[in-house]
Design a protein that fits this description.
8 strands, alpha/beta, TIM Barrel, 291 residues
C-alpha cells in the first residue's frame, strides 16, 4: 500500500511542514509501504514551484530512506515536464508518477509520445497515471501495453479509470515485470484478485494500518478476511469523495486531531452535512476522535 499523502496547510494558508513531518512519521509507524507526494490528493495544482521543491526535500529528509518515495511530476506541456525532470533535484526519490496530460485531450499516439519523451528524460522508474475523470481523456489499454513493452523504465500504471475490464486487459497482456496499481480504494480488492499489486491510497492517510492490512491480506490471497476489512471501511471510502478529494480525507484527519481542516481554493472543505456523516461513520468504526 502506497499512500497519496495530503499537504497540510496552516490556517493562514501556508504549508504546515511540522504537521507534514508528523504525518510522514505516522505513515511509517503504521506500516505504509511507500509514500506518494505531490499527487492529486496533495492539492499539487495549488502549490508553487518553490513549495513543491521544499516538500520533496522535506519529505526525503524526514523519511531518511526508511521507505520508498514516489513523486508526482506531470503536466499537459511535454517539454515543461521534461525540463522539470532534467533540472530538478530528485535525490532520495525512487520513482516518478506522471498523469496523462489533461485539458488538451491528446489522441492515443500523443499520449504514447508524451510518456516516451518524459521517460527518456529521467533515469528513474516511471509510473503511468490514468485518471480520465480528472484529465478528460482515457489512456486505452493498448497504449499502456505499448509503453510497457517499448520503454524500459516505464514500470507500472496507477489505473484509476474505474473500468475493471480495461484493468483486466492490461493485467492479462502486460510484460511480466510491469505492474498495475489500483488508483481507487473502493475497487482495490477486486483489482488485486485480478492481479494488481496493490494501491496508491487516499484512505490510507488516516487509516494506514487498517487499509494496509486489507491490501496485504488480499495480496496473500486471504480474500475472505480482506473482504471483511473492506466491507467495514466501505461506507467511509464512499463518504470521502462526496465533496471531492481531498476534502473528505482532510475532514477525517481533522477529526482525528492531525491537521487543520484547510484546503486551498478552488477546493474547499467538505460541506457540514458531509462532515457530520463522516464523523458518524468514524464513531461506528471506533476511531479515536478529537473533534
Amino acid at each position: 500500500m502506497g499512500v497519496a499523502l495530503i499537504t497540510p496547510f496552516l490556517t493562514n494558508g501556508g504549508v504546515d511542514y511540522i504537521t507534514l513531518s508528523h504525518l510522514v512519521e505516522y505513515q511509517i509507524k503504521n506500516g505504509t509501504d511507500y509514500l506518494v507526494i505531490l499527487g492529486t490528493t496533495a492539492e499539487t495544482p495549488t502549490l508553487t514551484d518553490r513549495e513543491k521543491k521544499r516538500i520533496i526535500k522535506h519529505v526525503v529528509n524526514k523519511v531518511n530512506k526508511r521507505i520508498p518515495i514516489v513523486a508526482g511530476i506531470g503536466g499537459n506541456n511535454t517539454q515543461a515536464v521534461i525540463e522539470n525532470l532534467q533540472s530538478g533535484d530528485f535525490s532520495g526519490i525512487d520513482a516518478i508518477l506522471s498523469t496523462v496530460p489533461y485539458y488538451n485531450k491528446p489522441p492515443q499516439e500523443g499520449i504514447y509520445q508524451h510518456y516516451k519523451k518524459i521517460a527518456e528524460a529521467t533515469p528513474l522508474p516511471v509510473i503511468l497515471y490514468n485518471v480520465p475523470g480528472r484529465t478528460g481523456v482515457n489512456m486505452e489499454a493498448e497504449t499502456v501495453l505499448r509503453l510497457a513493452r517499448d520503454v524500459e523504465n516505464i514500470v507500472a500504471i496507477k489505473e484509476a479509470s474505474g473500468n475493471i475490464l480495461q484493468a483486466e486487459t492490461i493485467i492479462k497482456n502486460k510484460p511480466a515485470d510491469f505492474k498495475l496499481i489500483s488508483g481507487d480504494d473502493g475497487i482495490t480488492l477486486q483489482l488485486i484478485k485480478l492481479g494488481a499489486v496493490g494501491v496508491i491510497s487516499v484512505i490510507g492517510n488516516a487509516l494506514p494500518l487498517e487499509f494496509g492490512n486489507m491490501v496485504h491480506l488480499a495480496l496473500h490471497k486471504h480474500y475472505e478476511q480482506a473482504n471483511d476489512v473492506n466491507m467495514r471501511l466501505k461506507k467511509l471510502m464512499e463518504l470521502l469523495f462526496v465533496d471531492g478529494n481531498p476534502a473528505g480525507i482532510k475532514s477525517v484527519l481533522d477529526m482525528m486531531g492531525y491537521i487543520e481542516n484547510v484546503l486551498r481554493l478552488p477546493l474547499i472543505p467538505a460541506q457540514i452535512e458531509t462532515y457530520k456523516r463522516i464523523h458518524s461513520e468514524l464513531r461506528k468504526l471506533n476511531i479515536k476522535l478529537y473533534v
